[in-house]
Amino acid sequence: MKQTIRNISVAKAIVHCLKREGISHVFCVPGESYLPLMDAIFDEPSLQLISARHEGGASFMAEGYAKASGKSGVVLATRGVGGANLAIGVHTAKQDSTPMVVFLGQVHSHFRGREGFQEVDLDQFFQPIAKWTVEIREAERIPELVQRAFRVAKTGRPGPVVISLPEDIFFQDIAEAVITDVAVPRPAPSAEDVRGVQEILQKAKRPVVIAGGGVKQAKAEQLLRLFAEKYSIPVAAAFRRHDVFPNDHPLYVGHLGLGTPKPIIETVKQADAVIAIGTRLSEVTTQDYRLLSPDQALIHIDIDSDVLGKVYPPAVALVADGKEALSKLLEIAVQPSWRDWAAARRKQYEQASTLPAEKRNFNEAVIASLQQHLPNDAIITNDAGNFAGWLHTFFQFTEKQMYIGPTSGAMGYGMPAAVGAKLAFPERIVVSLSGDGGFMMTMQELETASRYHIPIISIVFNNSMYGTIRMHQELHFPKRVIGTDLGHVSFAELAKCFNANGVRVETEDQFTGALIQSFTETKPTVIEVMTDPNQISVAATIDELRKRSNSR
User: Fold this and answer.
1) By the 8 A CB rule, do 434 and 414 touch?
2) Which of 253, 352, 464, 509 has its C-alpha lying 20 to 30 A from 332's C-alpha?
3) CA–CA distance, 409 with 406 (Å, rounded to integer)
4) How far separated are the first and last CA of the chain, in Å rounded?
């Protein structure tokens, strides 16, 4: 479908491109360098501009919106200072393979190269962490290059694209703008590729699937389940892709992340054939690149050819969309002989991930309450930090598209990403989990959520320290604490200052009451969970870490 518009301003041409992409929300911190674009959005009822308190928060909102909606996240900022602030969101989108288009106002063309006010070569600055960057200098090329940006962001392995727009370009008109639909190619494996997979599985005794974000982006979760069931192949989720396969399914065998229990790692190590679908086999997923061995036959399926063989040499490599690949793999002729092994590995996972009847600490009680009371269509986001270990280990993600987390490990991500997800699905309950260190990094966006009446629920685990770094500090430099203690902050009271609800809880009953109450609130809620500083991780306390160090 093609639309031709004549005698249109640059700003309105960009808005037409956003409309054609079905974008509903655009995130920003306002800047004078792109005021005409903001004004054009003012006239477009299908677009809502969300003005954030910090560009980093705005970029996390756009990234969370993209993950939830399946559309490209769009974020606007001004010149070098705004661009630098939102770089963390661009990096997150790159590592998470999230489609994002960033529009950055640039200094006036006549001032370029003179170290103008806030001048940075934005396209060069972002080149290492973006999928593509471009500075548009001719108004007539705006429709062409903006649509190309969305095409690049969405196709192949998705990622962020950065567009630099000199301030003066907004005061020009375009004689003829052609706006078209952007088609996303869905490559399928060849018959020869499928035969290669079949031959490996026919010889296999203990195959396993590692499923990543490519399965989610292809909306192939249902096909993955059918594939696993047809051939009785156990499935492990790549780092922070928990919802790629129902965790309560008899063939789910765990999440490959930070602090993964040994029985789950052992499942992959025992496998003689590994089918990696839509995962780049990252450092965390592969446990510091030590998970797989040359003795295992690797079948690597990804839409991006650059991913294949980047970490491990595959026996069979398929450049294919996850949905198309799984459709074809459902046709292979393989008789599984590994059902007993798969069942045994499932039991190992259940033993490692089942919460005890008597909760050992408050963190476990919180996860148990979330599991019991959250509706099935709730969305959970989380920050980086050791508190997430309890979520990753014990929470059962039983539905697709219910989890959003940063594989980049970005602190400050959880709450702004929840804002983006809630805007994508306003009818669903959206809960973020953060530590006190990460929450403070973007807490100002709670005011953004209040201002736009976005009733997210933010759970803050407060132990007054940078817990993950403190854990490593106690391991390697026991009792030499420096830089990891934080001051005592009442996040519940701060929330009220941001026109949100704030509740401090110290027991499971208090938490459950606050959680259930938050479901019907019309403004954001912060539930401050006061945790034991000694309980530094799922597997250890600070006292235990110090004892280990003393015994060396």
Assistant:
1) yes
2) 253
3) 5
4) 69
Is a pLDDT exceeding 90 seen at residue 474? no
3-state helix, strand, coil in the chain (%, to 5): 40, 20, 40
Structural contact between residues 315 and 297, judged by C-beta atoms closer than 8 angstroms:
yes
Give the span between the Cα atoms of 127 and 131, in whole angstroms. Answer: 7
Helix 55-69 × helix 414-424 angle, to 10°: 50
- Please state, in angstroms and rounded to a whole number, the distance separating the CA atoms of residues 432 and 416: 9
Report which secondary-structure segment, H or E, holds 301.
strand 297-302
Alpha helices in 257-338 (DSSP H): 262-270, 322-329
547: its two tokens: 């004892």
Q: Which helix (H) or strand (E) holds 6?
A: strand 2-9
Sign of the four-CA dihedral 543, 548, 551, 552: negative
**Taking a C-beta distance cutoff of 8 angstroms, is the pair 386, 472 a contact?**
no
Give the separation between CA 366 and CA 490, rounded to whole angstroms. Answer: 19
**Confidence (pLDDT) at 430:** 98
The pairing of strands 173-180 and 2-9 is antiparallel
**Nearby residues of 407 by Cβ (< 8 Å), 6 or more positions away:** 95, 96, 213, 239, 240, 282, 284
Q: What is the mean pLDDT of the chain?
A: 94
Q: pLDDT tens digits for 316-330? A: 999 999 999 999 999
Tokens in use for 345?
A: 């590995």
d(CA 419, CA 68): 11
Statement: the pTM of the whole predicted model exceeds 0.90 = yes
**Half-sphere exposure (Cβ direction) of 176: Cα atoms closer than 13 Å:** 4
Tens digits of residue pLDDT in 41-86:
999 999 999 999 999 999 999 999 999 999 999 999 999 999 999 9
Partners of 5 in the β-ladder: 177
Nearest to 260 by CA among 281, 236, 225, 277: 236
Mean of pLDDT values over 303-311: 95
Q: Shortest CA distance to 480 belongs to which of 542, 437, 438?
A: 542
Sign, Cα dihedral of 242, 245, 246, 247: negative
DSSP line for 208-257: EEEE-HHHHHTT-HHHHHHHHHHHT--EEEPTT-GGGS-TTSTTEEEE-S
Residue 28's identity, in one-letter code, is C
Q: Give the pLDDT score at 551.
A: 64
CA-derived radius of gyration, the chain: 24
Contact between 225 and 234 under an 8 Å Cβ cutoff? The reply is no
